[in-house]
Amino acid sequence: MKFQALASSSHGNAYIVDDGATRILIECGVSFKRLQQLSGFQLADLSACFISHEHKDHARSYRELLKSGVEVYTSAGTAAALECEQITAIEEREAVVIGTLEVMPFRVFHDAAEPFGFLMRSHEDGDKLVFATDTVNLRYQFPGVTILAVECNYAASIIDRCDRMPEKVRQRIKNSHMEVSRLCRWLSGLDLSDCREIRLLHLSDACSSEVDFVRMVQRCVPAGVKVSVCPKVSEA
Fold it and tell me: How many Cα atoms occupy the beta-carbon half-sphere of 137 within 13 Å?
């Protein structure tokens, strides 16, 4: 299984999961034209799109995807917030099979109607991917995971020094996004014996440090696990 980040920031998010037999889009938070460009004009190859929640930087082009024939899946709460009856509503911890990929949605913790993360298992190669963005914490263990794509939004030491940031914004970030030390504590409690890759998502423009975040995460996971930051916009 391959995980490709097309865009990963508060300006827009889009990711592709491909196990060689099935290709799925997670998030569509950029314009449809930009999504076409970033995907190499291969949207016709998509089997589905899964959206974590209704905020524009994650769901911007869902209507165009539907019009182009791509089925869009999300929680009932997110579908209602988007006011779209054409979206296919899925239930927490009830798996959906799309081709060779089995997708299990799980609840995350964000200021949205009914936000989901996704556990994806490939029947083609046996890989397991966990995708979780825009969440203040995670409560599951995910045994046997091979790829982790998780939010690592800000550092407490940096955000507390952002004097120009309004206090309301600061508190919203702290109450709805993953802080790097909290992520490290969660990772330290996991069995990562099968994990080969951790991708850090959705880093804050003002309150993060790519180099420091990678170093911190690398220290709390097994030596063989590759840790990297997803680019804000894909170079492809």
Answer: 5
**Distance between CA atoms of residues 93 and 40, nearest Å:** 32
Measure the CA–CA gap between 150 and 131, rounded to whole angstroms. 6
| Tens digit of each residue's pLDDT (9 = 90 or more) over 3-51 | 999 999 989 999 999 999 999 999 999 999 999 999 998 899 999 999 9
Rounded to a whole number of angstroms, the CA Rg of the chain reads 17
Give the whole-angstrom CA distance, residue 88 versus residue 109. Answer: 22
The token duo for 9 is 């920031």
pLDDT band of residue 143 (cuts 50, 70, 90) is: very high
Q: Which amino acid is at 38?
A: L
Element spanning 183, H or E: helix 180-188
Instruction: For 58, list phi and psi in degrees, rounded to 5.
Output: -125, -20
SS3 213: helix
Q: Which domains does the chain have, with CATH numbers?
A: 2-229 (3.60.15.10)
Which residues are CB-contacts of 69 (< 8 A; sequence separation ≥ 6)?
Answer: none
CA distances from 215 to 123, 130, 152, 207 (A): 33, 21, 13, 16
Q: Tell me how crowded residue 91 is: count the other CB atoms within 10 A of its CB.
A: 11
Cα–Cα dist 80/89, whole Å: 9
Dump strand ranges (E) for 34-172: 48-50, 72-75, 88-90, 96-98, 101-107, 116-122, 128-132, 147-151
At 164, is the pLDDT very low, low, confident or very high (cuts 50, 70, 90)? confident
